[in-house]
Amino acid sequence: MSNTTSSIAPDARPRLPHGVRLVHSEAQGGWVLLAPERIFKADAIASEILKRCTGETTLTAIVDDLAKAYAAPRERVLTDVTALLRGLADKRLLEL
Amino acid sequence: MAGNGAAPHNPLGLLAELTHRCPLGCPYCSNPLALDPRRSELDTQTWARVFNEAAGLGVLQVHLSGGEPGARRDLVAITAAAHAAGLYTNLITSAVGITLATLRQLAEAGLDHVQISIQDSEPTSADRIAGYEGAFARKRALAAEVVRLKIPLTINAVMHRANIGRLEDMVTLALSLGAGRVEIAHAQYYGWALKNRSALMPSAEQVRRAAAAVEELRARHHNEIVIDAVVPDYYARLPKPCVGGWGRRSLNVTPSGKVLPCHAAESIPGLEFWSVREHSLADIWANSPAFNAFRGTAWMQEPCRSCARRDVDFGGCRCQAFALTGDARATDPVCHLAPDHDKVAAFASLQDDAPYVYRRM
């Protein structure tokens, strides 16, 4: 079953699959992930991670970028990013 | 603004019933018994305006439905308008009436997702339930093209007595068609399904086995397909929070332009619905009497009014409360606390093999 702690390959290039879109909605007050029959409100941290999931950037680069942008410990960022991406991948909202 | 002391949220979803016309005659159709004729349908430009107003109101997803949306010759233009408004577009189709060429045009118009209904995993039974010979084969063909075009596919299977024993086969079929998601949707008894209830109602034992099968299939096919289940509420103890609460998250525009809190709302007598022909969607959402009739909790009676779950399930479904008790303000009798809860079991026990009353215009 789902395992939110399992690691993701450092050179994985996470991306949103066909049919999943990250959009900003003024009326809903922030970023939302739209998927078939599903809507996930992405909080500030999640939306910053998801904006970087373009299919071109590696996990390592995403984590480096976020750690730098938010002056946060890299290990901590890696843990948070991994948990979010793994959880979304389990729901088929992300491809790793 | 809203009555009953509840300010409306922004809606998230819009069900656009583009037409009630449909080549199929499924006996559990959620459309009302009185269907809108073609001459009363909204035109392309009006739908485009509705989509723009919906996006402005906060709606994120539009479900292009019917009837069979493929019966509209302007389906591609309608889809393009929804996409241009910034909405996530979901086509809900029987697959009969959408040609492969039309599907390719829809993909170019920005279609985000397709949901195809199947009536059974066994072709003869499927066509019998649909009341349309050859429907099953067409569904296979359209599903293959959806996958080829890399549009995510959901298979929707409405479950009832004639097909519930093949639940596992239907999930297997959805997998073989390349669906990323399958809805195991037990028939909900409104409209045509209510009319055919005794012929559709499964036994308690069938429902129990189906629930166990869904759990087992979810575990087995984890990472392959998402299995969503709509529960058979005649056998439940707690009511469903129908449409996420009346006038809270979604709205439904009928083929002729009436705006409803849910697709069955017209079955409740005395509600005043407004039309997109006369009002903006924002005005309707905030001020139409039908939307405000059951917003919040002030309309509730006991046992709902003092119930700890009143903000969880909102007293259940208003249409079901009316259909089964004659009072739309009553606790949904599916709830074990409802004074009329015994009626649900009594209705569920009415099972016969009467011929279906097929849904026809």
Give short descriptive properties of this protein.
heterodimer; A: 96 residues; alpha+beta; 3-stranded antiparallel beta sheet; 3 helices; 3 strands; 38% helix; B: 361 residues; alpha/beta; 9 strands; globular
Describe the structure.
- The complex is a heterodimer of chains A (96) and B (361).
- Chain A is α+β, with helices and mostly antiparallel strands.
- Helix content of chain A is 38%, strand content 17%.
- The mean pLDDT of chain A is 90.
- Chain A contains three helices and three strands; from the N terminus they run βββααα.
- In chain A, α2 (59-69) packs across α3.
- Chain B is α/β, with parallel strands linked by helices.
- Chain B has a nine-stranded mixed beta sheet.
- Chain A binds chain B through residues 1-2, 17-21, 23, 25-28, 32, 34, 36-37, 39, 90-92, and chain B through 10, 12-13, 56-58, 60-61, 86, 88, 90, 112-113, 115, 150-152, 154, 180-181, 183, 219, 222-223, 226, 228.
Topology, please?
The complex is a heterodimer of chains A (96) and B (361).
Chain A: E1 21-25, E2 30-35, E3 38-42, H1 44-51, H2 59-69, H3 74-90
Chain B: E1 13-17, H1 44-57, E2 61-65, H2 75-84, E3 88-93, H3 100-108, E4 113-118, H4 123-130, H5 135-148, E5 153-159, H6 167-177, E6 181-186, H7 191-195, H8 197-200, H9 204-220, E7 226-230, E8 250-253, E9 259-260, H10 281-287, H11 289-293, H12 318-325, H13 341-348
Parallel strand pairs in B: 1-2, 1-8, 2-3, 3-4, 4-5, 5-6, 6-7
Antiparallel strand pairs in B: 8-9
Radius of gyration of chain B: 20 Å
Question: What Rg of chain A is obtained from the alpha carbons, in whole angstroms?
Answer: 13 Å
Task: State the strand order across the main sheet of chain B.
Answer: 7-6-5-4-3-2-1-8-9
Q: Distance N terminus to C terminus of chain B? A: 38 Å
Largest sheet of chain A: 3 strands, antiparallel
Count the DSSP helices of chain A: 3
Overall helicity of chain A: 25-40%
Helix content of chain B: 25-40%
| N-to-C series of helices and strands of chain A | EEEHHH
User: Mean pLDDT of chain B, nearest integer?
Assistant: 95
* Low-pLDDT windows of residues of chain A: none
Placed side by side, the strands forming the largest sheet of chain A appear as 1-2-3
Strand portion of chain B: 5-15%
What is the straight-line distance between the termini of chain A? Answer: 17 Å
Structural class of chain A: alpha+beta
User: Strand content of the residues of chain A, in percent?
Assistant: 15-25%
- Overall average residue pLDDT of chain A: 90
Number of separate strands of chain B = 9
The biggest sheet of chain B, with number of strands, parallel, antiparallel or mixed sense and barrel status, is: 9 strands, mixed
Number of extended strands of chain A: 3
